Amino acid sequence: MLQIIDNYDLSGSNTFRMKASCRRFISYDIIQDLASIRPADLTGPVFHIGAGSNILLTGDYPGTVLFSRIKYYDILGDNGDEMLVEVGAGATFDEFCSWAASKHLWGAENLSGIPGQTGAAAVQNIGAYGAEVKDIVVRLQCFNLETRRLEAIPLEKCAYAYRDSAFKHEPFKGKMIITGVLFRLSRSKGPNLSYKGLARAFTQASPKSPMEVREAVLGIRGAKLPDPSVIGSAGSFFKNPVVSPEDFCRISGAEGEVPHFDLPDGSVKIPAAWLIDRCGLKGASVGGAQVWESQPLVIVNRSGSASSSDVLALESLIINTVNERFNIILHPEVEHLGPGAEVKP
Ligand SMILES: Cc1cc2nc3c(=O)[nH]c(=O)nc-3n(C[C@H](O)[C@H](O)[C@H](O)COP(=O)(O)OP(=O)(O)OC[C@H]3O[C@@H](n4cnc5c(N)ncnc54)[C@H](O)[C@@H]3O)c2cc1C
């Protein structure tokens, strides 16, 4: 069913728990509902929200917010080893991870515990513990709001990169609504323990099932990250910066040992959490917003009533402090939506 609500309160629709509303909120259950939205129904700019776990609402949204409740699992192929399963964009991604692990299907287990919907997971190219969703995506089903037609977008056209995809940029952004994601899972692939922190959980014996890996991942996440049902946040606030080998030598020359990942093109990725920690910003706060003690990459709504101005001021403080010390500009991973959303160092 199509539901249209004007002046909708979005406070319960974002895990940061920012208070904001939108001019119009349209939710839908099936593709036909989506197709029945008339251009005149879309007042102002259009934003498609998922579970709101990667957004910072900086004020009331002057346009239309779309929300999907499309939930289905369709098995489209099974050759005994590989299974192709299409999942509705509105289904909770972690429920899919749990389902796959329970069926002894490898591929999604390292991504366990990441909040949000399946469509958004494919937009974000979510990643954790050495895996990214692009590793298991085959194709996306989309509804093009402009042409009003269904389109299948194969993996090659998704332009996947670190927390990035074609869906975050023109011409797809705001126009291509993901309705379903086709995943490829495997019965024989075995575990991906490329991430040291996860491998450490299996020093005694290698995991025999995706469920064992899922449980280890959930345990590690639980110890480090705030539970969105208890404390508001949008997960990692900043992307890990990628620097040139020269910049890396400059920083390690001044700082000593610097944790890093060498990338195939010669550039070097440095954990933003380390840079923030090194600046002494762990636990720093502005108003009700605070840098999370156990993982300084996360900004939390510590008081429960932090305003977006508190978060934006803390964001600027972090960007400026890291820039002054390391000459590196951190870029937010969290999407800012609303007035004053641009934060400049
Ligand atoms: C505690 C916590 C931990 C987290 N850990 C991780 C982590 O380990 N790794 C990681 O990568 N992320 C992590 N995140 C970030 C977040 O969970 C992911 O980015 C997630 O994919 C966002 O999903 P969502 O449904 O909340 O999307 P939203 O935040 O609502 O939207 C995200 C983007 O997707 C777009 N979108 C949503 N649905 C559709 C659709 N159907 N069609 C087209 N566009 C759409 C939106 O317009 C927006 O651009 C974490 C967040 C929290 C709060």
β content, as a range? 25-35%
Low-confidence parts, pLDDT < 50 over ≥5 residues? none
How big is the Rg? 20 Å
**How confident is the prediction overall: mean pLDDT?**
95
User: What is the N-to-C succession of helices and strands?
Assistant: EEHEEEEEHHEEEEEHHEEHEEHEEEHE
Oligomer: single chain
State the shape. Answer: globular
Q: State the domain count.
A: 3
Hetero ligands: flavin-adenine dinucleotide
Strand order of the largest sheet: 6-7-12-10-11
User: In angstroms, what separates the terminal alpha carbons?
Assistant: 44 Å
Share in helix: 10-25%
- Total beta strands: 20
CATH hierarchy: architecture of the largest domain: 2-Layer Sandwich
Largest sheet composition: 5 strands, antiparallel
What is the CATH class name of the largest domain? Answer: Alpha Beta
- The total count of helices amounts to 8
Describe the protein:
The chain is of the alpha+beta class. The chain contains 8 helices and 20 strands. The chain has 3 domains: 3-68, Uridine Diphospho-n-acetylenolpyruvylglucosamine Reductase, domain 2 (2-Layer Sandwich), CATH 3.30.43; 73-224, Uridine Diphospho-n-acetylenolpyruvylglucosamine Reductase, domain 3, CATH 3.30.465.10; 232-337, Alpha-Beta Complex (Uridine Diphospho-n-acetylenolpyruvylglucosamine Reductase, domain 1), CATH 3.90.78.10. It has helices at 31-35, 93-102, 118-124, 196-199, 210-224, 245-255, 272-278, 308-326, and strands spanning 3-9, 21-28, 46-49, 55-57, 61-68, 73-78, 82-88, 127-128, 131-132, 137-144, 149-154, 176-186, 232-236, 242-243, 261-262, 268-269, 285-286, 289-291, 298-301, 335-337. Residues 15, 47-55, 68, 89, 114-117, 119-121, 123-124, 126-128, 163, 167, 177-178, 225-226, 228, 233-235, 335 line the site of flavin-adenine dinucleotide.
